[in-house]
């Protein structure tokens, strides 16, 4: 078991969370190998967002173990610690700092010392500016760098958030419904973007959109009522009668 | 590093504001000291003190704006930091009375003699030395803010909850300072001051100097606040204000940032209180009243929160109105103040300066998009839409 | 020494007798009694003794002062007509006091009066006569009062009388009192150690402050006289009584605490509803309480001027009016101000603060800045004692009233359609709205309900607090503390929060003083909020984050 943990970038074992008697996660176990991209699907209330919450330290699990990079116990750390360790998270609803410019948003996310005094006396270096330019290129927002984030379209905000995630330079990226509310063209572009990102880091994608998941072409985990229902290639899980029942039955 | 940091505060707008302050700082004392009383340009000494008081309020407003306007922490207890700074200064001034008190006791202030105390409480030690007292003006409010903020921010107490417990904090202090056995003069507070740094507090020259010091304090407070808000830390603060949990997921320890700006703000409020006390000649527990702390929030709201100039302007305008009303229609002042609270929150959410800034940038946007229209096929209305969205986002 | 003591005894009995003279003595009896008293001055000791017995036989309490005066050599006969008076020394003579009515009946020179002489035998006769007139009076209240007085006097001389009274006593309560009085006297006498130990047992059973004092004195005196068994018994009994007293004291504190808690509950409950449902803090909530109190004042003014006989019903009339007026102000506030600030809780706080300033100043302009007098209906004044507890009726009424209000509110929220809507909006506003609940209507009604309850809280508070424009201000911070401590969105939390804070406050007060207790409580809540930011009974789960 420990060996399994040490060979993984993310290791969840028997994780349970309940809110007022409702079990949001029920003995959930999941292992992500370094460099892997995993898609998580499941109906509403399956526990996808809660899973993200326990990994990133927003919610503490009632029981179970969560290890990052084989050794770090995430259940003892808070959001800021976990983010600094190298786990980035993109929310379901795009959350960028709307009253600041695209440039500021990226600058805030950039991997630099996070303490108040470091930021108080911080002066952006040429290196940082170059890094931001690269990122802007990558998320196709070069032309809007001085625009307020509030003025971006919905899709552009999603991209900006992914850009902020990249700026953090995380080892593991948790992406919650990146394609929600996007046009077909944007969706396809996002899939390409994620595959590009996966070249250098591990990624967990939570998604409803099956076309998008198919585009990604990675191993799929199906969550249901807080635990894993099925795991494997998309074609394999979609042939599983239990998965079909969960999605179509009742 | 510090110089570079502070230099960041200066740009065209800041220089204009500093210029206005400098002119003010020189003209008022000069008008008092250089012209004889019957001269048309003479500024009576009570006006000097009154304006000095406004300047203290302006600094206090700056401190509130720093936490509320930039970090979204609505403090209903900043009066406490102001009053603590005031008490620290008041204690120094009490010790300067020496044997000139009613009872003529060289060590004990009158109220302690009256209470039959035999010696100075330990926490009064050192307050006869100005540098120590001046240090305490920063340390005492800063320490209270640190302890309070440490607990509050770490436990993620936010929004109205935080506002309410800051109010409880100042209320608890109000009750505490009313007690005679606290050793701060109880109900009557500290008063009957004689000298500051060896000069009579009543003298015109001292009053002019105190006024000058108050304007200087506002200028310094402004520079520090501007340098802070224009730094990367300032951007983090705004990020915290707009999306606290997102900031946390970026790896920023939000509680440390809040604590930093909270303590800085409390110290600024303490300085404002310290300058206020010698100019009004008294400090009593009434300064801790929760109503005072709420009132000063409206100064910032009127001027425009999130704009430093707005905070200063708001403090001066509202207090000028207060002076005028209480002189002419005393019974209507509370109606006016209450109406101001309602009107500003309903109709002027960004305050005077914020509103002007909004119109100005709308104008500029239009010009920019007009130019863009000539050069490219971009939607000319985008500037307006952007501006409208901008407005929404800021709310 | 003994004489002085028996004099005190007699005096106490006399005083209590005077206090009992509420019923008019019949003229017939009076004249009979007067002649009997006048007879006292005639004849020799034996005759006087017979007269005393005759007076005792009448059972007339009115004779007590005369007998008491006789015992202290203050009863004299006027030489001119033989009329008997109680006298008081004055320069150059006496002031004459009618022995039956107690009225001043003129003056007399020293030579005009003759003292009625007594000896020791007569003194005993007087004692027993007094005992018969008081301890053996036909009126049980009278006997009870007399027994209490005898208990306090601890007169060894009275033991015989008490024994006699005990034989005749039929009321078990009074008998117990008499036994206690006897025991107290025994402990004061030179009775045997065994008797005294038995007496200690009786006193211990009484278990109040006086018992403690007697036992402490006994423990001291027995230690001095070397009666170790008695000393042990007294000491043990004393600590037992002290425990009982401490328990009563705690109970009294709980009572005061509940009383304060009920006031806090009344003030906070409306706030809890608006805060819970709408997430906004209404800083003008205290002013709604004030409006309720001034409504009570207005109602009483009208009643005083036009229908004074309705006064006892004034609160019942004020309640619905206060609810309607404060509720209407609340609805107006929601419609004209708060609804435009939805989603901006901090600004709502500021705007409602502005409203509160306006309301305060308006009341100050209309009614003046001074306190207004609000009367207490007769049924709410007075007090009763339960064991070691003192319970005032107005506090009791407020506790009951606050619980009734709470119960009604819980019922409204649990089992009416409006309550269902309100709970739905509290838990998930967007969902409620999409299910067809008119959330703006729910908001306005909730605000009206919360404000209306603040109004009726004002009616109650007018009974125990000063009605002034600042009334609301003094409750607003406490109310917030209660809501925040109890947890938002849960009325039971508010109930528990209010009662806990009330009781804790009253328990701290004896040690820390009222102001410090309050400071400690505020500090405690500040710390508590940091530990449990959402209060005692918080809603959990994802709903909170939304």
From TrEMBL, chain A:
Keyword annotations from UniProtKB, A to Z: ATP-binding, Nucleotide-binding, Transport
Source domain of life: Bacteria
Extent of the signal sequence: none
GO cellular component: plasma membrane
Occurrences of domain ABC transporter (ranges): 10-250
GO molecular function: ATP binding; ATP hydrolysis activity
NCBIfam families referenced in this protein's UniProt entry, alphabetically: urea_trans_UrtD
Protein name: Urea transport system ATP-binding protein
Species this protein is from: Breoghania corrubedonensis
Origin organism lineage: Bacteria, Pseudomonadati, Pseudomonadota, Alphaproteobacteria, Hyphomicrobiales
From TrEMBL, chain B:
GO cellular component: plasma membrane
Region (Disordered): 371-395
Domain of life: Bacteria
Transmembrane helix among keywords: yes
Transmembrane regions listed in the UniProt entry: 12-35, 41-60, 67-89, 129-153, 160-178, 208-228, 259-277, 297-320, 332-353
Primary residence: membrane
Pfam families: BPD_transp_2 (PF02653)
Keywords attached to this entry: Cell membrane, Membrane, Transmembrane, Transmembrane helix
InterPro entries named among the record's database cross-references: ABC_transp_permease, ABC_transptr_urea_perm_UrtC, LivM-like
Topology relative to the membrane: Multi-pass membrane protein
Location of this chain's protein in the cell: Cell membrane
GO MF term set: branched-chain amino acid transmembrane transporter activity
Record NCBIfam families: urea_trans_UrtC (TIGR03408)
Protein name: Amino acid/amide ABC transporter membrane protein 2 (HAAT family)
UniProtKB/TrEMBL annotation, chain C:
GO molecular function, one term: transmembrane transporter activity
Subcellular localization, as worded in the UniProt entry: Cell membrane
Protein name: Amino acid/amide ABC transporter membrane protein 1 (HAAT family)
Keyword Transmembrane helix in annotation: yes
Residues annotated as transmembrane: 254-281, 313-333, 345-363, 396-420, 441-460, 480-504, 511-529
GO annotation (BP), single: amino acid transport
Topology within the bilayer: Multi-pass membrane protein
Coiled coil regions, renumbered to chain: none
UniProt keyword annotations, A-Z: Amino-acid transport, Cell membrane, Membrane, Signal, Transmembrane, Transmembrane helix, Transport
Similarity remark: Belongs to the binding-protein-dependent transport system permease family. LivHM subfamily.
NCBIfam families associated with the record: urea_trans_UrtB (TIGR03409)
Protein species of origin: Breoghania corrubedonensis
Superkingdom, natural source: Bacteria
Secretion signal span: 1-27
One Pfam match: BPD_transp_2
């Amino acid at each position: 078991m420990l060996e399994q943990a040490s060979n993984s970038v993310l290791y969840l074992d028997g994780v349970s969370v309940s809110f007022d008697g409702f079990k949001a996660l029920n003995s959930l176990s999941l292992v992500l190998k370094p460099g892997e991209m995993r898609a998580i699907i499941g109906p509403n209330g399956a526990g996808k967002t809660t899973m993200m919450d326990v990994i990133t330290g927003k919610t503490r699990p009632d029981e179970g173990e969560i290890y990052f990079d084989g050794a770090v116990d995430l259940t003892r750390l808070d959001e800021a610690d976990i983010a600094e360790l190298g786990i980035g998270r993109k929310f379901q609803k795009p959350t960028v700092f709307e009253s600041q410019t695209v440039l500021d948003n990226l600058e805030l996310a950039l991997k630099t010392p996070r303490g108040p005094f470091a930021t108080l006396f911080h002066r952006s270096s040429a290196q940082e500016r170059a890094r931001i330019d690269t990122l802007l290129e990558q998320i196709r927002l070069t032309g809007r760098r001085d625009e307020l984030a509030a003025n971006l379209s919905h899709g552009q905000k999603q991209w900006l958030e992914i850009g902020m995630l990249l700026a953090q330079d995380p080892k593991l990226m948790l992406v919650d419904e990146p394609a929600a509310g996007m046009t077909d063209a944007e969706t396809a572009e996002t899939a390409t973007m994620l595959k590009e990102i996966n070249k250098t880091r591990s990624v967990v994608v939570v998604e409803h959109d099956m076309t998008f998941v198919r585009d990604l072409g990675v191993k799929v985990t199906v969550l249901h009522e807080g635990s894993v229902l099925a795991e494997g290639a998309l074609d394999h899980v979609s042939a599983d009668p239990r998965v079909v029942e969960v999605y179509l039955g009742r | 590093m510090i110089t570079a940091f502070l230099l960041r505060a200066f740009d065209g707008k800041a220089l204009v504001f500093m210029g206005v302050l400098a002119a003010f700082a020189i003209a008022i004392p000069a008008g008092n000291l250089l012209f004889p009383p019957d001269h048309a340009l003479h500024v009576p000494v009570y006006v000097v003190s009154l304006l000095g008081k406004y300047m203290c309020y302006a600094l206090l407003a700056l401190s509130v704006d720093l936490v509320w306007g930039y970090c979204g922490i609505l403090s209903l207890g900043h009066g406490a930091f102001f009053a603590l700074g005031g008490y620290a200064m008041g204690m120094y001034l009490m010790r300067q009375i020496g044997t000139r008190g009613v009872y003529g006791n060289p060590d004990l202030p009158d109220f302690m003699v009256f209470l039959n105390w035999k010696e100075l409480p330990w926490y009064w030690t050192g307050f006869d030395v100005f540098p120590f007292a001046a240090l305490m003006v920063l340390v005492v409010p800063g320490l209270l803010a640190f302890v309070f903020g440490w607990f509050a921010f770490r436990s993620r107490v936010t929004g109205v909850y935080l506002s309410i417990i800051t109010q409880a904090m100042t209320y608890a202090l109000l009750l505490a300072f009313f007690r005679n056995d606290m050793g701060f003069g109880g109900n009557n507070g500290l008063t009957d001051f004689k000298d500051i740094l060896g000069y009579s507090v009543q003298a015109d020259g001292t009053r002019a100097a105190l006024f000058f010091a108050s304007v200087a304090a506002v200028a310094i407070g402004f520079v520090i606040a501007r340098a802070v808000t224009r730094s990367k830390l300032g951007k983090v603060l705004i990020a915290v204000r707009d999306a606290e949990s997102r900031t946390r997921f970026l790896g920023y320890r939000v509680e440390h940032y809040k604590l930093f700006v909270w303590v800085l703000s409390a110290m600024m409020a303490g300085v404002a209180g310290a300058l206020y006390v010698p100019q009004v000649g008294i400090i009593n527990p009434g300064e801790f009243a929760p109503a005072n702390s709420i009132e000063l929030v409206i100064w910032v709201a009127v001027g425009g929160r999130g704009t430093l100039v707005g905070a200063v302007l708001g403090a001066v305008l509202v207090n000028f109105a207060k002076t005028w009303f209480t002189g002419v229609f005393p019974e209507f002042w509370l109606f006016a103040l209450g109406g101001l609270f309602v009107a500003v929150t309903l109709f002027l959410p960004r305050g005077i300066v914020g509103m002007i800034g909004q119109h100005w940038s709308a104008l500029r946007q239009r010009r920019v998009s007009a130019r863009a229209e000539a050069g490219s096929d971009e939607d000319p209305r985008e500037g307006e839409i952007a501006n409208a969205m901008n407005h929404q986002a800021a709310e | 020494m003994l004489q002085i003591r028996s004099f005190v005894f007699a005096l106490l009995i006399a005083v209590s007798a005077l206090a009992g003279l509420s019923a008019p003595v019949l003229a017939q009896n009076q004249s009979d009694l007067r002649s009997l008293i006048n007879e006292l001055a005639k004849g020799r000791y034996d005759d006087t003794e017979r007269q005393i017995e005759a007076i005792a036989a009448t059972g007339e309490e009115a004779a007590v002062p005369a007998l008491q005066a006789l015992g202290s050599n203050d009863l004299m006969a006027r030489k001119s007509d033989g009329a008997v008076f109680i006298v008081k020394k004055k320069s150059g003579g006496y002031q004459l006091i009618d022995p039956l009515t107690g009225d001043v009946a003129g003056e007399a020179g020293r030579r005009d009066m003759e003292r009625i002489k007594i000896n020791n035998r007569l003194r005993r006769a007087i004692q027993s006569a007094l005992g018969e007139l008081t301890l053996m009076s036909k009126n049980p209240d009278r006997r009870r009062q007399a027994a209490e007085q005898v208990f306090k006097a601890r007169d060894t001389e009275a033991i015989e009388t008490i024994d006699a009274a005990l034989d005749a006593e039929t009321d078990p309560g009074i008998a117990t009192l008499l036994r206690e009085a006897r025991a107290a006297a025994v402990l004061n006498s030179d009775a045997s150690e065994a008797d005294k130990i038995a007496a200690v047992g009786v006193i211990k059973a009484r278990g109040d402050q006086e018992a403690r004092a007697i036992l402490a004195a006994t423990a001291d005196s027995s230690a001095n006289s070397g009666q170790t068994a008695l000393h042990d018994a007294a000491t043990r009994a004393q600590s037992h009584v002290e425990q009982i007293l401490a328990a009563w004291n705690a109970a009294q504190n709980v009572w005061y605490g509940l009383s304060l808690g009920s006031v806090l509950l009344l003030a906070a409950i409306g706030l809890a509803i608006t805060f819970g449902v709408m997430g906004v803090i209404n800083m003008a909530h205290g002013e709604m309480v004030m409006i309720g109190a001034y409504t009570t004042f207005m109602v009483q003014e009208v009643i005083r001027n036009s229908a004074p006989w309705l006064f006892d019903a004034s609160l019942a009339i004020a309640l619905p009016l206060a609810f309607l007026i404060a509720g209407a102000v609340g609805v107006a506030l929601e419609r004209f101000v708060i609804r435009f600030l939805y989603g901006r809780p901090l600004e709502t706080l500021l705007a409602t603060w502005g409203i509160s300033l306006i309301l305060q100043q308006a009341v100050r302009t209309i009614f003046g800045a001074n306190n207004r007098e609000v009367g207490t209906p007769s049924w709410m004044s007075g007090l009763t004692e339960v064991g070691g507890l003192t319970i005032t009726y107005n506090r009791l009424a407020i506790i009951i009233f606050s619980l009734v209000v709470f119960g009604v509110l819980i019922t409204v929220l649990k089992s009416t359609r409006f309550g269902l809507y309100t709970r739905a909006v509290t838990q998930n506003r967007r969902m409620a709205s999409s299910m067809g609940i008119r959330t703006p209507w729910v908001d306005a009604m909730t605000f009206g309900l919360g404000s209306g309850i603040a109004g009726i809280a004002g009616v109650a508070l007018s009974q125990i607090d000063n009605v002034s424009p600042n009334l609301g201000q003094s409750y607003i911070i406490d109310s917030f503390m209660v809501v925040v401590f109890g947890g938002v969105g849960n009325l039971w939390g508010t109930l528990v929060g209010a009662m806990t804070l009330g009781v804790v406050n009253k328990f701290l007060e004896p040690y820390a003083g009222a102001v410090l207790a309050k400071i400690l409580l505020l500090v405690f809540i500040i710390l508590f909020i940091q530990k449990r930011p959402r209060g005692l009974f918080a809603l959990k789960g994802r709903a909170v984050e939304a």
